[in-house]
Design goal:
By secondary structure, this protein is an alpha+beta fold. The protein contains 2 helices and 4 strands; from the N terminus they run E-E-E-H-E-H. Strands 1-4 form a two-stranded antiparallel sheet.
Length: about 100
């Protein structure tokens, strides 16, 4: 296709961008995360531990840091809604 006709047609693709963040939280060892074993000793209940860590992570004081960004085709392709815009490289070139 010649360069002068290259802006005549575009094909849209719906993308999805995910930002992964990480944080560290200290979970207090309390009855909320302890479970008694068959031998009478206590250990940490992993599921309760994770649930408590997630609950604590909702505190606004938790320091979240961006770990990575990932952009991929959205698994559900559908027509663009009327209230959304699509980036068009051709209109950017026209503005320069």
């Amino acid at each position: 296709m010649s360069e002068e006709n290259s802006g005549a047609t575009c094909v849209s693709l719906r993308l999805r961008r995910t930002t992964y963040e990480d944080a560290y939280v200290n979970v207090p060892v309390t009855d909320a995360i302890l479970k008694q074993k068959e031998n009478g000793t206590y250990g940490i209940d992993y599921d309760a531990f994770v649930a408590e860590a997630i609950r604590l992570s909702e505190n606004p004081s938790v320091e979240w840091r961006v770990e990575e960004h990932c952009t991929e085709p959205h698994p559900v392709q559908k027509p663009r809604p009327e209230d959304r815009q699509a980036y068009d490289v051709h209109s950017e070139r026209e503005g320069t």
